[in-house]
Amino acid sequence: MKRKADVLDPQSQKLTVPDTAFIGLKADHPEYSSHRTEREQFQRLYLAEGPKGHICWVKGRQDNGDDSHRIAPSPVVHVRGLCESVVEADLVEALEKFGTICYVMMMPFKRQALVEFEGVESADKCVACGTKEAVYIAGQQAFFNYSTSKRITRPTNSDNPNSGNKVLLLSIQNPLYPITTEVLYTVCNPIGNVLRIVIFKRNGIQAMSVQSAQKAKAALNGADIYAGCCTLKIEYARPTRLNVIRNDNDSWDYTKPYLARRERGKGRQRQAILGEHPSAYSDNGYGPHCPLLPLPGNNRYKMSSHDIPEVVAYPLPQTSSYLGHSSSSVAMVSGLHPTKMNCTRIFNLFCLYGNIEKVKFMKSVPGTALVEMGDEYAVDRAITHLNSIKVFGKRLNVCVSKQHAVIPSQVFELEDGTSSYKDFAMTRNNRFTSAGQASKNIIQPPSCVLHFYNVPPCVTEDELQRLCTEHDVPGFIKFKVFDAKPSSKTISGLLEFDTKTNAVEVLTVLNHYQIRIPNGSNPYTLKLCFSTSSHL
Question: Which GO terms describe its cellular component (predicted)?
Fold first, then answer.
């Protein structure tokens, strides 16, 4: 259920709406953060949900000007109206004058945060000060309210700066570009010497000391690695040490340079006469990285000259993303169902990870197609999230193609009667056509919950269920529609399926389906994407 979160501006006494919030949704929901700020006046009390179910009270006003509800003071304060570039250190610097801060939970996409003070007296001072006068964080006025939670739930038991843990867990949100050990080393080493990096579904970095780990968390939590994407969310990890067996793009031990490119269990390798690869072949599969956002020159968390050792024994990684793959914006997809997959359905699935230029089925290799995407980063995202998933009973194999473009040659008719080649360069259904549009897409792996939007308000749950039946795809088991403004011309919501495979098949078939309504001039294009929710 969607609700607007409103804030009473203490200076103008006007009721404004700095953000959009949801009741009943997790704070990391793409639907939670995808709506723009609205400037409207409301005269009711609403609740805004913070991370992991924390419900924060947002001050409202009745027609008579009095508060209709009060909430008991809490050590946890909900902070709103933050600027996009704010990091944890900015919050600590601005609010530590009110008392000792125990923990900070950043919500970068919502421009919000939860701050837990050591005592409720400190939270009282913070909220009271924010009511009487403007409090600025990183140069922008912020708003404060009590949370109904008395303590912020930590992700792990070891999430305590005094626990002695040197391992940080980095979650990369909206990863539009590849994240390698080289990227993370470049980001984190200026804060404190990095010893080991291991990249998996969530990323861990081991720093040299507790002090360095604390400094890295404060300086980088909430920051973007690249402008507008690859946002860092940092916590203390459960393990106290990282084990690295080889040095490559996914793991690196800077204390053991001899691990470089050694394959475990293979013994000594045969010596190659002409080296590792032809000189014309580039290891640097994706070219130079986009410029990293530099830390400010006066950043107090940056290592000073006397902190940097005179002799650095830890070599920088010399390889870039995906050894053995040349730079290409073309993906090769095999394992396609011969009768149920066509160019349009490939587009429906792959467009979630980048623009699609062309799709061509290969006549010489049945069940295989080439997909030309907007750039090599889109291919990387497609490989990461779609390789090995099952669609219509067959497991997809997605890899980088040796081709650098899709040429419309040997066009033939597929078994379903459609063409083996289709150009999507001019379609309006591509979702990464501009930087602003691309930033609204939350890169998400397939899940059993689909987010639907751009649906006419007259469409019911039964009609969507009937749509699945008519197209011979599995029906959903749970349905949820978000509350919309009375003036809204479309609705959105969530559909939960029995399995992830069912959700993938429904998205492949029904994404961009044209919904026509009686007496309507233009059809509505049903749009689907994977949700971050695991269930409703």
Answer: nucleus; ribonucleoprotein complex
Total number of residues shown for the chain: 536
Does the structure show a pLDDT above 60 at 58?
A: no
Yes or no: say if 156 and 235 are a contact pair by the CB < 8 Å rule. yes
| Closest listed residue to residue 336, CA positions, set 382, 370, 367, 369 | 367
Which runs of consecutive H residues, i.e. helices, occur in 277-419? 343-350, 376-386
Q: 145 with 114: CB under 8 angstroms?
A: no
192 — phi, psi (to 5°)?
-165, 150
Cα(155)–Cα(21) distance, rounded to whole angstroms? 22
Longest distance between any two alpha carbons in the chain, whole Å: 86
User: For 143-160, how does the pLDDT look when each residue is reduced to its tens digit (9 = 90+)?
Assistant: 999 988 888 877 655 555
Q: Which of 36, 123, 32, 25 is nearest to 71 (CA)?
A: 123
Radius of gyration of the chain (CA): 26
What's the pLDDT band for 452 if we cut at 50, 70, 90? very high
Of residues 171, 222, 226, 174, the one with CA closest to residue 200:
171
The three state secondary structure string of 431-495 is CCCCHHHHHCCCCCCCCCEEEEEEECCCCCHHHHHHHHHHCCCCCCCEEEECCCCCCCCCEEEEE
DSSP 428: T
pLDDT at residue 125 in the model: 92
pLDDT at 308 over 70: no
